Amino acid sequence: MKSILLAGYHNPRYPTITEYVEKAVRESGFGLTSFDDRSYGVPGFLRSAWKKIDNAALSAMNERFCRLAEASRPDLCIVTGGHRISPRSIERIKSYGIKTVLWTIDAPSADFEYIIAAARVYDKVFCGGTEAVKILERAGVKNPAWLPFACSPDDHKPAPLDDKEKKTLSRDVVFVGTVNPLIYPFRSAVLESIADYNLGVWGPGVRRIPSSYALRSRIVAEHTPPSVWTKIYSAAKIVLCMHYADPAGGFPCRQASPRVYEALACGAFVLCDAQPDAAALFSDGEHLVYFKNPYDLRVKLDYYLAHPDDRLRIASAGRKLALAEHTYLRRLETILRTY
Fold first, then answer.
1. CA–CA distance, 125 with 81 (Å, rounded to integer)
2. Mean pLDDT across the stretch 254-264?
3. For the chain, where are the alpha helices, taking DSSP H only?
4. Which of 80, 114, 147 is the last residue of a domain?
5. Residues 272/294, Cβ–Cβ less than 8 Å
6. Quick one: which of 93, 249, 280, 335 has the fewest CB in 10 Å?
7. What would the pLDDT profile of 280-333 be if each residue is shown by its tens digit?
8. Predicted local confidence at residue 250, as pLDDT
9. Residue 218 pLDDT class (50, 70, 90 cuts)
10. Nearby residues of 212 by Cβ (< 8 Å), 6 or more positions away
11. Pair (44, 136) in one structural domain
12. In which domain, by residue range, is 40 found?
C-alpha cells in the first residue's frame, strides 16, 4: 500500500480527529490525499433555509470527492464520520479498485440510520464506541469493529506555562468541553455541585448556564483551542472528563471521549465518569480514577487533592499507557492490518 485518501471534517478553529489521522498517515510514510467533506461551497444559512439547495450542495460535494478519488487513485480511502459521503459515492470509488474504510465518530443519534445504510457498502467499518458496533451488528452490517479514539503525542503533551499563564489558567479542578445544560444536563448539574471548589470551566455553551447557578462564577472562557487547553491540563491538579448521554434516553453512548486520551497524554490526573468504553481501556486507580455520582466525585476530589503523590503516580501510569497503546498511529496500524 502506497497512498491513502482521507475524507473528514476539517474544523477551521482547531485540529480534530481528521487532522490527527492525517498526521499519522504522513508519519507512516504513505502518500496522503485529503478531502474536506464539509466543503459544500454554499453558505450554511442557505442550506438550512432551502432543502433543495442543501441537497444540491451535498451532491456536488460528493461528485468532487469521487473525482478526486478517480484522479488520485489511492490504495485505500478512509472516511471519518460518514454522515456526508453517500453510499453511492463509496460504491463508485470501489469500482476504481479502491478499498474503503468507515470510522464512525459521533455517538448514535436520530440520524444514525444514514450511517447504517452507508456502512453496508464499505469494505470495513470501525466504530469509535462499542454502542455503535452493537447497533450495526443488529442491523446486519458485516463485522463492524471497535476502534477507540486516541491521542496525538506531538499535540497532546505536558505544556510549559509562563508566570502569567500560571496565574490565569491554574486551578485545582478543571473541565474543558461543552457545558450547555440543554445538551448536557448531567454535566452541568455535576459541575454546579462542585462549584464551591477551586474550579475552572472552559467551553461552548457557558452562556446558557442560568445566572442563578454558582457555576457561572467558575466560567473562564468559551471556545478554547488545543494550544490553550493543553496548558490548562498541564497546570491543573485534577482534570474532569464527563461524557455525553442522550437527554431523552433514546440512544446509548459508551464511547470514551477523545479528551480522555488527550488529557492523559498531557500528563494530567484524570477523574472520569464511569463510561464503559473508558473502563475497558484504563484501570480505576491505576491509570485514572472513576466516579459514580456527584457525591462520589466530591469524596474523590477531597482525597486526591490531599494526596498529591497518588495523583502523580496515577497520572504517570495513565500517560505511559496512552502513549504506548492509544495513539492515532496505533489506530492507523489497526486499520491497515485489515488489508
1. 11
2. 97
3. 17-27, 44-49, 51-72, 87-94, 112-119, 130-138, 163-169, 185-193, 226-235, 258-265, 276-281, 294-305, 308-325, 328-336
4. 147
5. no
6. 249
7. 999 999 999 999 999 999 999 999 999 999 999 999 999 999 999 999 999 999
8. 85
9. very high
10. none
11. yes
12. 3-147
